[in-house]
Amino acid sequence: MRSKATGATALVLCWFAGVQPAAPQTTRHPRVPPGRPTPEVFSRTGTSLVPAQLQETETPNPRLNRMVLGGLLGGAVGFAGGLYLGDKVVQTDDLALVFAWGLGVESLALPLGVHFGNEGRGNPLPGGFMSLALGIVGGLATHKSRTAAIVPVFVLAQLIAAVALESRSTPP
Q1: What tens digit of pLDDT does each residue of 97-125 get?
Q2: 15 domain residue, yes or no
Q3: Are residues 146 and 75 in the same domain?
Q4: Domain range holding 132?
Q5: Residue 59 forms part of a structural domain
Q6: Is residue 164 within 8 Å of residue 134, measured between CB atoms?
Q7: For the residues of 3-60, what is the DSSP string, one character each?
């Protein structure tokens, strides 16, 4: 009786996930008694039965950590360089304007850091254009609001966009 309930539960899980269970086997596994699911349909993980099709089959991108670290380093170097350039070029005490310069230069350096972290395998242009657009919007918002508190939001958005677009353009 227990095997029918487990099989029905698994079928319901498969139906919700949109996965078709494997076709019934005509030959049974020697250690599986009749009425129990076959190992080809289910695999045991811990104490519960999970359909084999629902288990994670994709491996994450191994260069993802390097891309994020490269983007952070590139962005930090670009932001520091932009702060220095903003201070020298503008010659003002307006901190928001100097931060806008920092964000502008950082928006060019961050996608390059992501590209170098990806070992130069992808295309840096889509991430660069998206990062530049977010940098311009962030710089204008920083200058308009007269506060530098929103800079991390735009930097995080640039990092996510650059990593996503670089990953998408990387050949397998």
Answers
A1: 787 788 888 889 999 999 999 988 888 89
A2: yes
A3: yes
A4: 64-169
A5: no
A6: no
A7: HHHHHHHHHHHHHHHT-PPPPPPSS--TTSPTTSPPTTTEEEETTEEEEGGGS--PPP
Read off φ and ψ for residue 149, nearest 5 degrees.
Answer: -70, -20
Taking Cα atoms as reference points, which of 102, 108, 103, 120 lies closest to residue 66? 120
Is the distance from CB of 65 to CB of 118 less than 8 angstroms?
Answer: no
Q: Are 129 and 86 in contact (CB under 8 A)?
A: no
- Per-residue pLDDT tens digits for 114-162: 999 998 888 889 988 999 999 888 878 877 887 778 878 888 999 999 9
One-letter identity of residue 69: L
With left for phi above 0 and alpha for psi between -120 and 50, is residue 91 left, alpha or beta? left
CA distance 130 to 151: 16
The angle, 0 to 180 degrees and rounded to 10, between the axes of the packed helices 151-169 and 64-90 is 130
